[in-house]
Design brief:
The complex is a heterodimer of chains A (309) and B (277). Chain A is of the alpha/beta class and 309 residues long. Chain A contains 13 helices and 14 strands. Chain A has a 6-stranded mixed β-sheet with strand order 6-7-8-3-9-10, sandwiched between helices. In chain A, strands 2-1-4-5 form a 4-stranded antiparallel β-sheet. A 4-stranded antiparallel β-sheet of chain A has the order 12-13-11-14, covered by helices on one side. In chain A, helix 4 (110-116) packs across helix 6 (133-145) and helix 10 (235-246) crosses helix 11. Helix content of chain B is 80%, strand content 0%. Chain B contains 11 helices and no strands. Chain B is mainly alpha-helical. The chains are: A alpha/beta (309), B mainly alpha (277). Chain A binds chain B through residues 13, 47, 50-54, 71-73, 75-76, 80-88, 90-91, 95-96, 99-100, 102-104, 127, 140, 143-144, and chain B through 2, 5, 8-9, 12-13, 16-17, 80-82, 84-85, 87-92, 276-277.
C-alpha cells in the first residue's frame, strides 16, 4: 500500500493556481524528498495531506485514508513538523511534549524525546516563547516523534537549524526510517535530500516535473564524471596523453593546459583514463573527481522554465 | 475525547498570562470597593445591597471582559501559526473549537468566581449580613451571562480570518444588545404608536408581550429578567407578584441564554470546518 497518494490534485486560491493536477505516490518505507524552489507548491501539497486546505479538484490519500474524511485518523499515525508554525509562548518545552503525548494517547517519555532532539532539561523547563528558531524546530520535531508514527511529514525540517542540527535531523530521519516509518520531507536545500532520500520528486510552479530515485535523476540528466588530473612531464608527453585519452570510447571531452588535464567521461571510466595517461608516460601527480550533483539536476529541472520563457 | 486535551492546554496557557490573574485581582478590588463605598454612604449594608451596586457595573464590564478573553481564541493561533501545531496532532477541527471555547470559558469563570468568593469571605469576617442564596445565585447568573459573550466572541474568532472583522462583529453585538437594545426597542414602539395612534390590531401579541419577546432576544435582557426574579425571591417560582417576570418568561430567558451559549459556537464550528487554514 502507498503511504501517500495524490490523485489529480489541483488547488486554486482566489484564481491563482498553486497546484496543477499533481499525481504522486510515495511507497511505504520510503524516504521521499519533495524538492522545489520556494513557492512551487510544496507546502500547499503538505497542507492538503494534513487537511489544512482542501483540494479544488482531485483527492489525496494518506496511509490508505482519505485526507478529508479521515483526517484525524491520519494524524493519529503521522508525526508532523509543519511549516510556518509557532510554538505556544507561555508553555514550556516539556508542556508542549506532554500535550502532544496526551493528544496522541501515547506513553512516550518526554525527557527521552527531548534528549533525542538535543534539548537539555533546562531548555525543557523554559517557556518556549524564549526559544530560538532552531530550538523551536527541535521541540516540534520531538512532538512529531511522539507515538512512533508510521509516517513523518516534515516541511522544510532544516530551516533554522545550524549544521549540527541539520545533521541531527538527518540522523533522526534515518533512524525513524529504519524503525519502519515512511518519511516525506520537503526542502529547497538539496544537500539534505541527496544525503538521505531514496526517492525524489521535483515540484515546479505547482506541477510535478520529475519523480525518480537520486540515481535515476542523475542518469536522466547524465553529465557523467568530471576528472581533473594534475600531471607532470614534457609538452609532447602530455599531448600523447591527451590523444590516448581521447581515443577512449567513454570519454566525451578532454581539455589540457600546462599542468592539468580535465576529462569528462562516464562514471566508471576513471581508472581507464588514468591507465591511458600512465601508458603514455605522463606522470599523474594528483586527481580530483566531481560527480554531477543533484544541484545540477535540480536546477536543470527548475530553471528550464525560465530558459523557455 | 480530544477537546478535553485542547481545553486543558488552552487554560494552562491562559493561566500563565498576566491577564487572568490581573482580572482576578480586578474583580476582587471591584467587589471590595463596592462594599467599601456602600459601607461609607449607608449604615450596615447587606451583601444584597452590595450586589445591587455591583450589578450596575457588572452588566457592562462582564461582557467586555468575556470578549477580551475570548475574541483571539482561534484567530491568534491562526495568525501565529500555532494552530498548525494543534491540527498536526490528532484533533478534529470541531474538537479544537470546542476545546478552545471550554478553555476560554474557564479562563473567564475562574477570575469571576475567585473575584467574588474572596470578598465574600471578607464580608463574612467583618460581619456583614450575608444572603448566600442571592449572592451565589447572582454569581451563577453573571457567569452564564458572561459565558454567552465568551461563546459569541469565540464563535466569531472561528468564523472570520481577519481580526478587524472579528472585533467589529463582536463589539457590534455588544453595543446592539447590551447598550442600544432597550433604546432601539423603546424608540420603535414610540414610532409605531405615534404613527398608527394605537397598537396595530393585526399584531398577534400585545405591546407588553412584544416588548418581552424583544427583551428575551438579548442576552442582557435575559440576565435582567433572571436577576430581577432572583432578587425578589421568585426565581422559577410558580406564583410571582405584580410586575415581576413570570415562570414562563424566566424559563424563556434561561433557554435563550443557553441558546446564546451554544449557537455561536455551533456556527463557528460549521464555518471553521470549511475554511482553508
Amino acid at each position: 500500500m502507498a503511504a501517500i497518494e495524490l490523485d489529480g490534485v489541483t488547488k486554486r486560491f482566489d484564481g491563482v493556481t498553486a497546484l496543477q493536477e499533481v499525481d504522486l505516490t510515495v511507497e511505504e518505507g520510503e524516504i521521499f524528498g519533495f524538492l522545489g524552489p520556494n513557492g512551487a507548491g510544496k507546502s500547499t501539497s503538505i497542507n492538503i495531506l494534513l487537511d489544512f486546505v482542501r483540494p479544488t479538484e482531485g483527492r489525496a490519500e494518506v496511509l490508505g485514508y482519505d485526507s478529508y474524511e479521515d483526517s484525524t485518523r491520519i494524524r493519529e499515525r503521522t508525526g508532523v513538523l509543519p511549516e510556518g508554525y509557532d510554538v505556544y509562548d507561555r508553555l514550556t518545552g516539556l508542556q508542549h511534549l506532554e500535550f502532544a503525548i496526551e493528544s496522541k494517547d501515547a506513553d512516550d517519555d518526554p525527557h527521552a524525546l527531548l534528549d533525542r532532539v538535543g534539548l537539555s532539561e533546562e531548555d525543557a523547563k523554559r517557556k518556549a516563547g524564549g526559544y530560538s528558531k532552531g530550538m523551536s524546530q527541535r521541540l516540534v520535531l520531538a512532538m512529531a516523534l511522539v507515538g512512533e508514527p508510521d509516517l513523518l511529514i516534515l516541511d522544510e525540517p532544516s530551516s533554522g537549524l545550524d549544521p549540527n542540527g541539520a545533521r541531527m535531523m538527518q540522523e533522526i530521519v534515518r533512524e525513524e526510517n529504519e524503525r519502519g516509518a515512511t518519511v516525506f520531507f520537503s526542502s529547497h536545500i538539496l544537500g539534505q535530500v541527496e544525503a538521505v532520500c531514496d526517492t525524489v520528486g521535483i515540484l515546479r510552479e505547482g506541477e510535478l516535473v520529475a519523480k525518480d530515485t537520486i540515481e535515476g535523476l542523475r542518469e536522466a540528466y547524465d553529465t557523467g564524471l568530471t576528472l581533473t588530473v594534475t600531471v607532470g612531464g614534457t609538452a609532447s608527453q602530455i599531448d600523447d596523453g591527451v590523444a590516448a585519452v581521447r581515443a577512449l570510447d567513454a570519454v566525451s571531452d578532454v581539455r589540457a593546459d600546462s599542468d592539468a588535464i580535465t576529462v569528462t567521461c562516464e562514471g566508471d571510466q576513471k581508472m581507464a583514463v588514468l591507465n591511458a595517461l600512465e601508458d603514455a608516460e605522463v606522470s599523474v601527480e594528483d586527481f580530483e573527481t566531481e560527480e554531477a550533483s543533484l544541484d545540477d539536476v535540480f536546477s536543470s529541472y527548475t530553471e528550464r522554465q525560465e530558459a523557455e520563457a | 475525547m480530544s477537546w478535553q486535551a485542547v481545553a486543558r492546554k488552552d487554560f494552562q496557557d491562559a493561566s500563565r498570562s498576566y491577564l487572568l490573574w490581573g482580572l482576578t485581582i480586578g474583580f476582587i478590588a471591584l467587589v471590595s470597593l463596592a462594599a467599601a463605598v456602600l459601607g461609607w454612604v449607608q449604615s450596615d449594608p447587606t451583601s444584597t445591597d452590595i450586589l445591587g451596586l455591583l450589578h450596575m457595573l457588572f452588566q457592562y464590564i462582564v461582557p467586555l471582559i468575556a470578549i477580551a478573553i475570548s475574541f483571539g481564541a482561534i484567530v491568534n493561533e491562526r495568525d501565529s501559526g500555532s494552530l498548525k501545531i494543534l491540527l498536526s496532532l490528532p484533533h478534529s477541527r470541531t474538537d479544537v473549537i470546542l476545546g478552545k471555547a471550554l478553555g476560554r470559558t474557564a479562563a473567564f469563570v475562574v477570575p469571576l468566581v475567585l473575584g467574588m468568593l474572596v470578598p465574600a469571605v471578607a464580608l463574612l469576617v467583618v460581619g456583614v449580613e450575608f444572603e448566600a442564596a442571592k449572592y451565589f445565585g447572582y454569581l451563577l447568573l453573571a457567569t452564564l451571562f458572561g459565558v454567552a459573550f465568551v461563546s459569541v466572541a469565540t464563535g466569531m474568532s472561528a468564523t472570520f480570518e481577519s481580526r478587524f472583522r472579528i472585533l467589529l462583529s463582536v463589539f457590534g453585538f455588544y453595543f446592539l444588545f447590551n447598550i442600544l437594545w432597550r433604546a432601539i426597542n423603546t424608540a420603535s414602539f414610540v414610532i409605531v404608536l405615534t404613527l398608527s395612534g394605537q397598537w396595530p390590531s393585526w399584531m398577534p401579541l400585545t405591546v407588553q408581550e412584544t416588548l418581552r419577546v424583544f427583551q428575551l432576544l438579548s442576552p442582557t435582557g435575559d440576565f435582567q429578567i433572571l436577576r430581577q426574579a432572583l432578587m425578589n425571591d421568585v426565581l422559577f417560582a410558580s406564583e410571582v407578584g405584580e410586575g415581576l417576570p413570570d415562570f414562563r418568561l424566566q424559563l424563556g430567558a434561561m433557554a435563550m441564554l443557553l441558546v446564546w451559549i451554544t449557537l455561536p459556537i455551533l456556527i463557528g464550528i460549521l464555518r471553521f470546518e470549511d475554511a482553508d487554514l
